[in-house]
Amino acid sequence: MDRLRAYEVFVTVVARGSFTKAADALDTSPANVTRYVNELEAHLRTRLINRTSRRLSLTEGGEALFDRAKSILEEVAETEALATTASLQPRGRLRINAPLSFGSIVLAPVWPRFMAKYPDVELDVALIDRVVDIVEEGYDLAIRISRTMSGTHIARRLGRSQNLVCASPEYLATHGMPEVPADLSRHQCLGYTYGATSDEWQFAGPDGTLESVRVRWALRANNGETARAAAIAGVGVIWQPSFVVGEDVRAGRLVEVMPGYRMPAIDILAIYASRRHLSAKVRVMVDFLVEALQGLPWEKGGPAGVGR
């Protein structure tokens, strides 16, 4: 059995939803398609597709094989293109993981530009705030907001963003303006569940001296937009990256407090598995993001952010 051809037939049957349509797409007979699927099931010793008179459905084993077989076929196509053309054309599905706020605020507007430039790449974007295992969960690329580079994967820095501490004008009018970090212990604070600082916020003062303060939570959420909305509503003091709250500071919905004290800046990283041969679709995406994200408001100095 030609296993690569069997994978191609199997993936086409699933994608087309029919043995007959798969045969048409592959320019072969339905009997040939059936033979390949049967031989693949026999080789793997498991049923992959449930057949009824009306529809096809994947078994659990079929679902697991479909995603992996599709990726294998895409990689084979890229490898063949590399051997037969002077330049490899990016193609196939590109699975990307990114944090929810960064993905919706910063990345969403740039995807159409990438798609126009690379029409053969199919984007599959998942916005999840928790740190995913890109290999185990099948992602080609992850965008992470972190103060440290990855030790197990390749990481390329796309930019940097400053964490801003701010509150609404209404909250500050009622509770007063904190002047130094120690003042925050008397304020209601809004936290981010996945933040590295937990309930201890650390700052670098005007002379570079590090100061820490333990805060008390009025609210803590696993999404930055939730905390941002609470801050705008006057619930308490928030820290968030400038790409989340920078526009609110510029518009006056939030006011930066203690501008002489800074939380550590954070890196915007593109993370991908350490492979000897980087696929073309990942390579062009990383290069595209490096260029596309330069010069955005959160990259600039001042209240919206800091430079690289």
Terminal Cα separation, in Å? Answer: 54 Å
Counting DSSP H or I runs of 4 or more residues, the number of helices is: 10
Order of secondary-structure elements: HHHEEHEHHEEEEHEEEEHEHEEH
Measured as a percent range, the helix fraction is 25-40%
Average predicted local confidence, pLDDT: 86
Q: Got a strand count?
A: 14
- Strand order of the biggest β-sheet: 4-3-5-14-6
Q: What is the percentage of strand-forming residues?
A: 15-25%
The Cα radius of gyration reads 25 Å
Largest sheet: 5 strands, mixed
Q: Which blocks of ≥5 consecutive residues have pLDDT under 50? A: 299-308
Estimated structural class: alpha/beta
Overall 3D form: elongated
Question: Which key features would you list for this structure?
Answer:
308 residues; alpha/beta
Question: How would you describe what is shown here?
Answer:
This protein is an alpha/beta fold. It is built from ten helices and 14 strands. It has helices at residues 3-16, 19-26, 30-44, 60-84, 100-107, 111-117, 169-175, 224-232, 242-251, 280-292, and strands at 49-51, 56-58, 92-98, 121-127, 141-146, 154-161, 163-167, 188-192, 200-204, 210-214, 216-221, 237-241, 255-256, 266-272. The strands form four sheets. It has a five-stranded mixed beta sheet, sandwiched between helices. The protein has a five-stranded mixed beta sheet with strand order 11-8-12-7-13. A two-stranded antiparallel ribbon has the order 1-2. The protein is elongated, with a radius of gyration of 25 Å. The chain starts with a helix and ends in a 16-residue tail after the last helix.
